[in-house]
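Aggregate trends can hide what the representation actually does to any particular protein. The sequence in question and its structure tokens are set out directly beneath this paragraph.
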Amino acid sequence: MSSTASSSTQRGWSDPRIPRVEDCVLGPLLDRWADEQPDKIFAIFADGSSWTYRDTRREARRAAAGFARLGVKPGELVLSWLPNGPDALRVWFGLNYIGAVYVPLNIAYRGTILEHAIRSAGSSLIVVHADLAPRLEAIDRAGLEHAVVLGGDAAVAGLSCIGGEALEGDEASLPPRAEGILPWHTQMVIFTSGTTGPSKGVLSSYLQCYTTALESFHYLGRDDRFIVNLPLFHVGGTGATFTAIVLGASIGLVDSFKTTEFWSTIRRLEATSVVLLGAMANFLMKSPPSPEDRGHTLRTAMMLPLSEDTKAFSRRFGCDVYTAFNMTEISSPLRAGPNPSPLGTCGRPRPGVEVRLVDENDCEVAPGEVGELIVRTDRPWAMNHGYLANPEATARAWRNGWFHTGDAFRTDADGNFFFVDRMKDAIRRRGENISSFEVETEVCAHPAVREAAAVAVPSEHGEDEVLVVVALQPDVTLDPVELIEFLRPRMPHYMVPRFIRFADDLPKTPTQKVQKHLLRGDGVTGGTFDREKAGIHIKREKIGG
């Protein structure tokens, strides 16, 4: 056991809600597992290479020594701009090993979005892949001074660029790990997807990441292997990876989710668990049946949101489905499983959290009504401690002592919570509030539809009209009138879309979130189907005499 690992009491606190340092802080965790199970595989990579826990600690310590030699101090923010792979892990673990803060950037960033993230971080050092480095040329880099370039050679005017050898330090030269690396210190800053505004950097403590790991994936154990196909600049990627470290389990790390390669990848890397985010589950369910549907090692899947019939998914693929509600800022306050129902539920509040559904004044709404989900926890530091360099956003989110998720929910008579919409994505038509999520769920039920997004567009009568942008299955056509007729018996009259537009693919962030602001910006284009112009008018059904 590392000399820096000690009990909570020895650290000066006796609160049973706060775990030991060696159970929740990354550096001591790596030391613990490297001592207890040095030969166990921690990570298998896409090319078949792997790291044991002994290897992982060595790679982390070598990178840590390199960062220390570059002058990186505990608490300092360092940018990491890398695709999934060994280098991304090496940088993350090396930074945390010396108590520095891991700040990964979305590899799709460029231009003003990239400027915003760099300016927010205020870091002087970035570790960047050579293929991404040229994007730094034409932007205002604020205080950025130095770059460690990996994966090739690159030079950026005005930056001091050095090669990857800078992170191949001598473990013997590592300074003693600071006693001050504690559970409530910042472990990482993950930027939100920015689907409704500028990306915000979420300040996450070791204790938040630890809590998220145990509460989100409470059904996993040391023998599990997580397939990590979400990026390591997203909480889906970092959360799964840190969960494995907390449990002493393992991961299979690949660059992205690919429907046609999913089951072969699961089988090749012998993965037992996965997160299916957004449309991933829908893609798998709509793929042609195959012997690979059962010829694999997967035992559990976390489906976010719960968009498929869990019993049908479980029967076809032979694995249990769990679900939850989580954001980068929180720690899975709602969860359910295995194989929960009804469709669309996010579960119920887990132990240790309080949740409320409130109106714009933070007054609780009546049971069954839609309100914004707000959250607080019993464990200190179990959620974010603010937004990086954005005190205004922090104050708005944390007003009245609760974290405001910005998501609309409702509950049923059994206490199940249902996600309705992002507050900013809600559609109001003919005096009715419409959930874009519910519209999308019904549209995607059509066998020809691969994925869909519903957005509000202006109506000539005031309020909104519903536009659905649809991507079809390969080699399939669909008459929009057929889709309208499919939807009519499945939803209230006011939800049936007026406009339908077909697209090859929906615009997404690299974390597979649909960029609805782009769809709203395009609006009703020349090729958009308008059912009212086609003479299809859907009216309220008359009840009684």
